[in-house]
Specification:
Shape: rod-shaped
Number of domains: 2
Largest sheet: 7 strands, mixed
Strand content: 5-15%
Number of helices: 11
Structural class: alpha/beta
Order of helices and strands: HHEEHEHEEEEEHEHHHHHH
Helix content: 40-55%
Radius of gyration: 45 Å
Oligomer: single chain
CATH architecture of the largest domain: 3-Layer(aba) Sandwich
Number of strands: 9
Distance between the termini: 45 Å
CATH superfamily of the largest domain: Class I glutamine amidotransferase (GATase) domain
Length: about 375
Amino acid sequence: MKWRLPHIDRMTVFVAIGALLFAAAYGGLASYIRSYYERSSPNPSVFSESGHGLSVYFRYLDRLGLSPKTLQQFDDLPASATIVIAGPLGATPGTGEAARLARWVRGGGRLVLVSSELVGLLDDLGAQATPGNGSQDSVVEPSLPGVYASGVGRIAPGVGRLQPADPSWVVHYRDDAGPALLSRALGSGEIAWLADASAVSNDGIGIEDNARLAVLLASQGGRGIYFDEFHHGFVNEASVWDRLGYGGQAATVLLFVGLGVVVIASARRIGPPVRPLEEPPARGGAYIGQLAELYRKAGARAEALEALEDGLARSLARRYGTRAGGLARQPRAAEALEASSALRAKHDIGRDEFLAAAKRLRRARMEVEGTHG
């Protein structure tokens, strides 16, 4: 059997090509966006390879066997863990998220904040502090012995500084411009706050003892370590669909719905045309009767009966779908056909026998065509 390509109308082809081009453009744009976030974004994300990113910090903790993870949802916060939130954030935590985070810390969670730009989040947590006036790049020594000074001689904390708003904060590093690292208890949990992200960034983690301080910030208490990537735009394994946001998702759905409407409204049936079944033309009753009369006049009585039988069989098939179905519904027609066939088997058909069989066939045909049996 020779295989043939199916027939597809032009509109269907245009719509399919348009959908493929849209998918390709969407994939290219998504790839570019992901590349931007992972390599060029100024956000301090663990996925970013830029100087402001935290990818070196993340990999360093991993090589030390601390197994850091990314937090890409904010509905179910990990129990007995340390969450590192580094600013500036791509999306500010909402009131509900801040309240959830406050309950988590008060219940025993440990929160490490990096950047003086996160003061708004601290206000929501009820642990007020304000940004300081800032400082020139300098080298700072520990202000007092403690867990964040173990093995640390000097750090380069960057230019950010903090001003605690209440005496609950403990100052671990400071210079003339103000504190660079604070910590405090909150309920059953703890908050540590590093004023500037440059100390743990890709560009700054290798300066002085910044790497040692970075490990101390993340590893206290032997807890699991999670970096907040949810507020940097990496949601649920950073799927492209989630990154589109509600507006982009709605636009994509509407586009595909529109394409579907165009296909349904404009496209013809896909596939080769179906040719109508070739049926021999039905012979009308007048034609059958004239043919039988010609056969009778010519003395061809057997041929005349055969023509009448053929007309009756066609009437049965037209009315009941098949000849067999018609014979089952019309027993008189079956008897007439059987009697006529038996008479044709004789070599010499008498005139009276012929007329009786012909009348019987005609009467049966009239019943088939004129009753609703």
